[in-house]
Write a structure and sequence with these properties.
It is built from 9 helices and 8 strands. By secondary structure, the chain is α/β, with parallel strands linked by helices. 49% of the residues are buried.
Length: 314
């Protein structure tokens, strides 16, 4: 499953919103083929040619696909509510408990923020991100039990919008109290996210700080340096971008366990590297073969589930 983005994530980050023509892709692909034929490493060209993600995939540079473990999962409790913060939108939600636990148990909780065009359902199940199975595997190997919850955040990039919709406020002011009513411990959270949700998790962790967030693990976060580079619809305008960018605000995550991973064949890789380099102390995670797709995210999920679990247990 490759998550749709409102603008082509393969495109080079500048100039703004540039579209790559079919002819350019053909020429670029031919150049890469020639480079390989004469013994020049294709990876050295992949960072500068258009269609980076496509090129990496075609050249087999994305590495092995991850898989959802074939394990018995715990209970999955689901529901929905009308969100005032999301202007009356119906928000579906789900909570995955580890085997041997269920509603009413006082467990720590991590929130999984979904990507663009996804929903709370994308977090769980063998045909999606499989976080319920990875959680069961983690606890079976001795990890401290915790729950993972997900909620529909729409496509607003998890921050306040000019329309008045605010999916981050929905999560904090409406969803967390709901989880507390189900017995979960919401005073200090874990955050997970991929693509749009990876950005949202990093931003929200910075807003809440170490008093509320134990750990954040972001997979392929959708990050841009400027509004002009950003995907259509991700931000209202340059002022909205300036208020909500995570660049230059890494210090807000001091005291929070941070992990950032991105595939080297991902169009966001260069920006994500720049973001990581802005920390005084390098966060966990790294950059290895992979694209902007579920094959890569499934490979990262065991490490992300364990990373957050360890922080919640500390």
């Amino acid at each position: 499953m490759t998550e749709p983005e409102p603008a082509e994530p393969d495109a080079a980050p500048a100039p703004a919103r540039r579209r790559v023509s079919r002819r350019t892709l053909i020429v670029g692909g031919a150049a890469a083929a020639v480079a390989v034929g004469v013994g020049v490493p294709a990876a050295s060209f992949a960072g500068v040619l258009p269609g980076r993600s496509t090129l990496y995939r075609l050249l087999g540079l994305d590495g092995p696909a991850g898989t959802v473990p074939a394990v018995a999962t715990g209970p999955l409790v689901q529901g929905s509510f009308r969100s005032a913060a999301r202007l009356g939108a119906a928000c579906g939600w789900a909570v995955s408990y580890p085997p041997g636990h269920g509603p009413g148990d006082r467990l720590p909780v991590a929130i999984a923020l979904h990507g663009y065009s996804n929903s709370h359902r994308t977090a769980f199940g063998p045909r999606a991100h499989g976080l319920d199975a990875f959680l069961a595997q983690y606890t079976a190997r001795g990890g401290r039990p915790y729950a993972i919850a997900s909620v529909d955040g729409g496509n607003g990039y998890w921050h306040p919008r000019r329309s008045g919709e605010d999916s981050a406020a929905m999560l904090v002011d409406e969803f967390l109290p709901l989880l507390a009513r189900h017995g979960l411990v919401t005073e200090r959270l874990g955050l997970l996210g991929w693509s749009m949700g990876g950005y949202g998790a990093l931003r929200l962790a910075g807003e809440l700080g170490t008093g509320r967030v134990a750990a954040v693990a972001a997979a392929s976060p959708a990050l841009w340096h400027t509004f002009a580079q950003s995907a259509n619809g991700a931000f209202d305008d340059a002022a909205d971008f300036a208020r909500n960018t995570v660049f230059g605000r890494q210090g807000r995550l001091d005291g929070v366990a941070v992990r950032v991973d991105c595939g080297t064949g991902d169009g966001f890789c260069a920006n994500d590297r720049d973001y990581v380099s802005g920390f005084a102390t390098a966060p966990s995670g790294g950059f290895e073969a992979g694209g902007h797709n579920n094959a890569y995210w499934l490979r990262m999920n065991p490490q992300h589930v364990a990373f957050v679990g360890r922080a919640l247990a500390a």
